[in-house]
Amino acid sequence: MPHHWTDQVALVTGGARGLGRAICRALAAKGAAVAVNYTSRPDAAAALVAEIHAAGGRAIAVRADVADAAAVEAMAAQVAAELGPISILVNNAGIAWSATLESFEPAGFARLRAVNVDGTIHATRAVLPGMKAAGYGRIVNISSVAAFATSGFPGNHFYASTKAEVNVLTRRFALELGAHGITVNAVAPGFTRTDMTEGGHSPEAWKAIEASFAVRAITGRVGEPEDIANAVAFFAAPDSSWITAQVLAVDGGRTDFIGHG
Ligand code: NAP
Q: Per the domain annotation, does 148 fall within a domain?
């Protein structure tokens, strides 16, 4: 049976801000119904849902901390009940954590892993029964070029390790799920303008940070959330059924590590 964008129901974790918001907008523009997951910012989620409705799309806001397996399962059930069976999952929710070997403390790393790694596992497990029943699914994980261990941003090694784990799980989940018509791919963004990167910096400090990353990209600029959303929509498309177990760097072409091989 052919699949169309207008039949799709997408759950985007951390969908209310940053990359997640651009991903929700892109999937809604294609015709998918979108569940915008949030945890701390109901205002941002409600604003995005209103925007999608105003454009004629279908969307709901759903709260869950992705680190909480039971809450994620309840959220998936709510989405399926309100929008229909989930056919697209974007594991985008993530946090950053800066630490060196010297400043490392277990609780910080535990929370980082609970959100970036466990969250990806919980949400994937929660949508699987529905996708298996349908014999169809698109799962897109948001990794990072930090995972390739080649982008030497000081203090982000533990964050990088969580994203390396996401890359491994992407390929291994693809292996387990391919027989069910479910593809699993990852997008590894380079330095992109969001609250995670821009937040907390003065305009002058941000300008200097932005310039330092822009100069390392072949395209001469940092990423915008729409650059990442474009790649996610490609993997999530009904036509992308023969593309799985891939990790795609979307980083404007890093001159210091072309291809991230
Ligand atoms: P952001 O601006 O800080 O937004 C993070 C989003 O994740 C928010 O919507 C937040 O929800 C949500 N979130 C955080 N913890 C959550 C939890 N426990 N449960 C549910 N949602 C949670 O970050 P971003 O830059 O858009 O990053 C999105 C993803 O891209 C992350 O996985 C990040 O690691 C990855 N990434 C970003 C960059 C970059 O340069 N920006 C580069 C590589 C990879 P609330 O709105 O409710 O707080």
A: yes
186 φ/ψ angles, rounded to the nearest 5 degrees: -130, 145
Beta-carbon count within 10 A of 2 CB? 6
Q: Which of 159, 191, 213, 235 is catalytic?
A: 159
What is the predicted pLDDT for the residue at 166?
98
Please report whether residue 134 resides in a domain.
yes
| Locus of tokens 């929509």 | 233
Dump strand ranges (E) for 2-133.
9-12, 33-38, 59-63, 88-91
Which protein residue's CA is at the shortest distance from atom 36 of ligand 1?
Answer: 144
How crowded is residue 48: how many other Cβ atoms within 10 Å of its Cβ? 25
**Block means of pLDDT (10 residues each) for the chain, length 261 residues?**
90 98 98 98 98 98 98 98 98 96 96 98 98 98 88 80 97 98 97 90 93 91 97 98 97 78 57
Given a contact cutoff of 8 angstroms between Cβ atoms, the answer to whether 24 and 232 are in contact is: no
> How many structural domains is the chain composed of?
1
Atom index in ligand 1 nearest the CA of residue 222 equals 40
The pair of structure tokens assigned to 77 is: 């059930």
CATH code of the domain containing 149: 3.40.50.720
Instruction: Tell me the C-alpha to C-alpha distance, in Å, between residue 47 and each of 13, 15, 17, 51, 94.
Output: 16, 11, 10, 6, 21
8-state DSSP, 117: I
Residue 137 belongs to what domain range? 5-197+223-250
Whole-model pTM: value is: 0.97
d(CA 192, CA 252): 10
Ligand 1 center to 118 CA (angstroms):
14
The rounded Å distance from CA 19 to ligand 1 centre is: 7
Parallel, antiparallel or unpaired: strands 33-38 and 9-12: parallel
